[in-house]
Design brief:
There is one protein chain. The chain contains four helices and three strands; from the N terminus they run H-H-H-E-E-H-E. By secondary structure, it is an alpha+beta fold.
Length: 90
């Protein structure tokens, strides 16, 4: 998802009281970090679920596993994740 699309989605979620301003900003910060490191991430983790939180990258073959591992290190942090496919990402 492009950062502008994500920002728009997070703003809509804030208006609907589905996410706090602070949590939305944290998700956007993680997505921005992901974009800064996209080339490295795509080269290293092709075909994996890639989750970034606390500025750290977590990978797994399944989304649930990536969340579980990341949550062990950052239990209260919000995250951004993508599934990297042959075309880059979903």
């Amino acid at each position: 998802m492009a950062l502008e699309q994500l920002k728009s989605l997070l703003e809509q979620m804030q208006k609907e009281a589905l996410i706090s301003v602070a949590d939305a900003q944290e998700v956007l910060d993680q997505a921005t970090e992901f974009e800064k490191r996209r080339s490295e991430i795509e080269a290293r983790y092709h075909g994996q679920v890639v989750l970034i939180t606390g500025g750290e990258i977590f990978t797994a073959s399944r989304f649930e596993e990536a969340i579980r591992v990341a949550h062990q290190h950052f239990p209260t942090s919000r995250f951004y994740a993508e599934v990297l496919t042959e075309k880059g990402h979903l």
